[in-house]
């Protein structure tokens, strides 16, 4: 599947085989040593109850007993984000169908001791952030595999990564991509109004950055699913070592300025990825719809281009993500 795919008609979703359990572990950030949370969701047969996490009401079994002794694992990263659970609906869907998912929190590019409320010390979009993201993702994977009682239930031969936006960049880096942080200066010169990639300080920090990072291929990663990944920091040949299967989603209206350079990722991959251009979608279409009562707090991330049905798209997306990881991680239905 390498061409433009239309939105498919609504169909019955894959039935849930289990309930979803939730637990929280943590990893130590390699750069600062700070403890950073990871939310684990996994299949259970225990009774569930409604709990509140951020803007979402989740029906889950807190610290529920796992239903399976061996499971594939999908690490999920959206990079730094104010709403760290913005992909929780996909995670719950996979957990109810026999997969363990780990939602990785990143420090958000904040300097140690910075106050998120003031924005001071915010390094989102600056060069130092980008080498740290794949290191944090690898540290999070180490923590999941070492955790008790869930870690030993992960099948080490069936580990994938779902990466959105900056998380897609991190996913490519752990799969063998070699980034050039210095390219950020060029991106920000061309797209100075892109607040997500190029806030104040991005261009000044670029000069001191290493021109090219060392490859950090993690052989534990067997499959990637990328949604509007940031490809701007990958130069020619930078993805030649990414040999695992890749499925690439691109929102038709998600990169209208060209700053993310999603098409670049597609062109640099040594093997053509499964590719899906989502008609009418904006960049935030991949994020879980937020209840109307909380929408005002999340601004642009809950808004879609006119005529785009995010909830309807997710009904299709969930099944496609499940199907892809079942195929590429050889997970039994």
Notes on the protein architecture:
Strands 3-4-1-2-6-5-7-8-9-10 form a ten-stranded mixed sheet, sandwiched between helices. Helix 1 packs across helix 7 (310-328) and helix 2 crosses helix 3 (166-174). Helix content is 22%, strand content 23%. The two termini are 21 Å apart. The protein is built from seven helices and ten strands. It has helices at residues 88-95, 129-146, 166-174, 183-190, 202-206, 262-268, 310-328, and strands at 19-28, 35-44, 49-53, 56-62, 71-77, 100-104, 154-164, 223-227, 246-253, 274-282. With 333 residues, it is an alpha/beta fold.
Broad shape? globular
Taken as a percent bin, the fraction of beta residues is 15-25%
One letter per element, helices H and strands E, the order comes to EEEEEHEHEHHHEEHEH
The count of DSSP E runs of length 2 or more, i.e. the number of strands, is 10
Biggest β-sheet: strands ordered side by side in the sheet:
3-4-1-2-6-5-7-8-9-10
- Mind summarizing the main beta sheet? 10 strands, mixed
> Which ranges are low-confidence, i.e. pLDDT below 50, for 5 or more consecutive residues?
1-10, 110-125, 201-208
Which value, in Å, is the CA radius of gyration? Answer: 19 Å
Structural class: alpha/beta
Note the gap between the termini.
21 Å
Q: Please state the average pLDDT score.
A: 85
